[in-house]
TrEMBL record:
It comes from the Eukaryota. Heme binds at C450. Residues 683-706, 760-793 are annotated as: Disordered. This is Uncharacterized protein. PROSITE patterns: CYTOCHROME_P450 (PS00086). Residues 1-17 form the signal peptide. Its cofactor is heme. InterPro entries: Cyt_P450, Cyt_P450_CS, Cyt_P450_E_grp-I, Cyt_P450_sf, Cytochrome_P450_monoxygenase, His_Pase_superF_clade-1, His_PPase_superfam. Residues 760-776 have a biased composition (Polar residues). It holds the Pfam family His_Phos_1.
């Protein structure tokens, strides 16, 4: 009997599978294997992340209408956005939104975001819709300014003044959540003040999204998980937000009973909603209704807005061309800070950058499902999607449509939002409007679209304009102390995490340094550089200019010798440090590069080195470099060395022979793009030459640096420092001073040195540093000269 039952079940399953795959009205729509049988396929794909990328692949393979579930069709044709998400007679949201319900006791409550009841939604949203127009949103701009000022003061205090690296993704989240609370309740959550995720609100919200995304693809599972009345399994961020809102509403109304709100103060959203009690008759404005309205702010205000902000910062770090154009526009605008909407609204490139970030990385990149009404849906190709089918469009798919955004739709480029060469005004306007209509779908569409779109736009534009007027940004790297793995969110030009390019401000400094180097006397004959990208990029303005000059004068070629021995200092660690890129890779970015003749003088150990070992390494390397120049009677009279902060200080000590007892002594100045000049005291004796030649570094024992006896004498006869860390040729002078203190540390008093300016016509070694110091993680921040850009915050 049991086997008969088993066979019956198998037959039933096979029959259902055959019907679903071959006889169902949706069988005409192709899709990934098994997707027509179970929603598990799309749920698993969603749980893995980057579902928008998966959907793009499916649409590329299966067409504009893809069956992604037994009763679900994904559409990629942007012309159907207006049909599916119509403002009038809106299609009902599918059950995918139900996991966003809140279970209070045994009662399941929907909210304005996820309700499937369009009539209830329209009635509840009507009284507050006017508060979300841009003209009304601007009323609460002072609350955004207040939070922006607080953020900038923290960034200055914690990162800029200390020369430390900032994890911008974290701080953008702090800002987005705090500004949401401030304009909603008139108080901050406390993220910026406490410099942490208060009460794990952000973590809980993130966990909620990670739960909602895959479970929304199989929404009935939520009944057995988070909405299980016996034992709940899953996060409860929505319930946390609801209870928080109830608490704030109760305490605020109690405060209003005991003390009136100050005259002239700006109403926040809770004030606006409470005021409806006097004017609204269609909806009962009790505490439950207040909380339902407030949840619109709480649910979307922090996560999706911070996602847009992070996208802008991330993709600007990856795209120097867009970054530099934005900075140039902001510099020209001379904005009052915090940036005001009236001042930033006309800025076309700021607008282009943010539009491109929202297009390229929409906040919600999932199929926004609707239920096909009784009339059915006829596709442009004539196929019919029957009534009752879940159908929708993923903004992450339509935003990469090459028919709308061009053949480079998969590339981030803010320039696509500008008028092209040869494009008349009418053509540009048509293309711009077409792109806008599709990219705005990132906020949804129709009567169920995001009501807070204008507020999110205001916050993002103000934040980006303020931060990029105030600071320069550069990608930096992270080291996992457990594994020693170096990583970076932004790929460096060489593909090595610890080898980032310069920030826009650093490029400007490098250009000013290049102009200065072209005027030094005696002129530079030969250039040596650390093999890291930022050093070579710092040299590029000078070497490119020299190459052009020499070509015109038929005066030979510029040679930049890449020497590992003057490379970066990483300190000691249990794990291997990264090696720089090969000369072949570097030559794809910079011309004029050559290897050290007969191989590198010395290669730093991948296991790192102590500070004394660093000094010995630089002394040995400089000794070899100088002796190679001495060996050529017609050789160079002036060498230019480009290296890093720690290496520069060690070079100064090696050349002069002066090693202080305190390694952290501030004896040699080291700022971004600073210039030091050393002149030889006397010619080298034969004995010293022999000693230097016999003490040769052995690659087989890379961590053993020969002792050439440089202390108290200096290398190759000894040198005097004639110019110590000069920055007078830089627009903003001395910045980001460094000295040894175990880790890199900011020099609080950059003017605590006395320069010695002397330019005798003798053999010299000129030393300069790259325009951005190395760092440890996140985004390197550098405060810009705001006195020429509208004043300080």
């Amino acid at each position: 009997m049991a086997w008969i039952l088993l066979l019956s079940v198998i037959a039933l399953v096979l029959s259902w599978a055959a019907y679903s795959l071959f006889c169902s009205p949706l069988s005409a729509f192709r899709g990934p294997p098994l997707a027509g049988l179970t929603d598990v396929v799309r749920s698993v794909a969603t749980a893995r992340g980057k579902i928008d990328s998966v959907h793009r692949k499916w649409h590329k393979k299966y067409g504009t209408a893809v069956r992604i579930g037994p009763n679900t069709i994904s559409i990629s044709d942007p012309s159907l956005i207006k049909t599916i998400y119509a403002t009038k007679n809106a299609w009902q949201k599918s059950p995918m939104y139900r996991p966003n319900d809140v279970l209070v006791g045994h009662q399941r409550l929907s909210n304005l975001f996820n309700t499937q009841d369009n009539a209830w939604h329209d009635k509840a949203i009507k009284p507050i819709r006017t508060f979300w127009s841009m003209s009304k949103v601007l009323d609460i701009e002072p609350y955004i300014d207040e939070t922006l000022k607080f953020l900038v003061s923290k960034l200055d205090q914690k990162f800029v003044q200390l020369g430390k690296t900032c994890m911008m993704d974290e701080w953008l989240g702090f800002f987005a959540w705090d500004v949401t609370a401030n304009l909603t309740f008139g108080r901050h959550y406390g993220f910026i003040e406490q410099e942490q995720d208060v009460d794990n609100l952000i973590v809980d919200s993130t966990n909620g999204l990670r739960y909602f995304a895959p479970i929304s693809q199989i929404p009935w599972l939520d009944n057995f998980l988070d909405k299980n009345p016996i034992h709940r399994i899953g996060p409860k961020p929505t319930l946390t937000g609801v209870m928080y809102a109830f608490g704030v509403v109760a305490s605020y109304q109690q405060d209003l009973k005991t003390s009136a709100k100050p005259a002239g103060s700006v109403d926040h959203y809770l004030d606006k909603y409470i005021s409806l009690r006097e004017t609204q008759s269609e909806v009962t404005v009790d505490d439950n209704q207040l909380v339902n309205w407030l949840m619109l702010n709480i649910l979307a205000g922090g996560d999706t807005t911070s996602a847009a902000m992070r996208a802008v910062v991330y993709y600007l770090a990856k795209n120097p061309k867009n970054y530099n154009k934005l900075v140039a526009e902001l510099d020209s605008a001379r904005l009052p800070l915090p940036a005001q909407w009236k001042a930033i609204y006309p800025l076309t490139y700021l607008d282009a950058v943010i539009r491109e970030a929202i297009r390229y990385c929409p906040g919600i990149a999932m199929v926004l499902e609707r239920v096909v009404p009784t009339t059915g849906l006829q596709l442009p190709d004539g196929r019919i999607v029957p009534a009752g089918t879940n159908v929708g469009i993923n903004p992450g798919v339509t935003s990469r449509d090459p028919a709308i955004f061009g053949s480079d739709a998969d590339v981030f480029d803010a320039d696509r939002w500008l008028r092209r060469s040869g494009e008349d005004e009418a053509q540009f306007e048509a293309r711009f409007n077409s792109m806008t209509n599709v990219s705005e779908f990132a906020f949804g569409a129709g009567s169920r679209g995001c009501i807070g779109k204008q507020l999110a736009r205001l916050e993002t534009y103000k934040l980006i304009a303020t931060l990029y007027s105030q600071y320069d940004f550069r990608s930096n790297w992270v080291v996992d102390p457990a594994t020693g793995e170096y990583s970076s969110n932004v790929r460096s030009p060489t593909g090595i995490a610890s080898d980032p390019a310069l920030a826009s401000y650093g490029v400007q400094q490098a250009e000013q340094l290049g102009q200065h180097l072209s005027k030094v006397n005696p002129p530079v004959d030969l250039v040596y550089s650390s093999p890291f990208y930022r050093c070579l990029q710092t040299l590029a303005p000078f070497t490119n200019s020299e190459a052009s000059r020499k070509a015109k004068a038929n005066d030979g070629k510029v040679r930049v010798i890449v020497e590992p021995g003057i490379g970066e200092f990483y300190g000691l660690a249990r794990f291997d440090h990264p090696s720089p890129a090969s000369l072949d890779v570097l030559n794809t970015h910079f011309p004029h590069l050559h290897a050290t003749p007969d191989g590198p003088h010395i290669v730093p150990s991948m296991k790192g080195e102590s500070i004394p070992q660093l000094h010995d390494r630089l002394a040995y390397c400089m000794d070899r470099i100088i002796r190679a120049a001495d060996a050529d009677p017609a050789g160079p009279k002036a060498l230019l060395i480009c290296s890093h902060a720690a290496a520069m200080i060690a070079i100064g000590r090696a050349l002069t022979g002066r090693m202080p007892e305190d390694e952290g002594e501030q004896d040699f100045k080291c700022f971004t793009c600073s210039f030091s000049r050393f002149e030889r005291r006397s010619e080298t004796s034969t004995g010293e030459v022999n000693q230097g030649q016999h003490a040769k570094w052995n690659p087989a024992n890379a961590d053993q640096v020969p002792d050439i006896g440089w202390r108290d004498r200096g290398v190759a006869g000894g040198w005097d420092c004639k110019v110590n860390g000069d920055c007078s040729f830089l627009d903003n002078g001395e910045e980001r001073g460094w000295h040894f203190s175990g880790d890199e540390a900011f020099l609080a008093d950059p003017n605590a040195f006395n320069d010695a300016n002397n330019t005798k016509n003798a053999k010299t070694v000129e030393v300069t540093s790259p325009s951005t110091a190395s760092g440890s993680s996140g985004v390197g921040m550098k405060e810009r000269d705001m006195h020429s850009r509208g004043g300080k915050l």
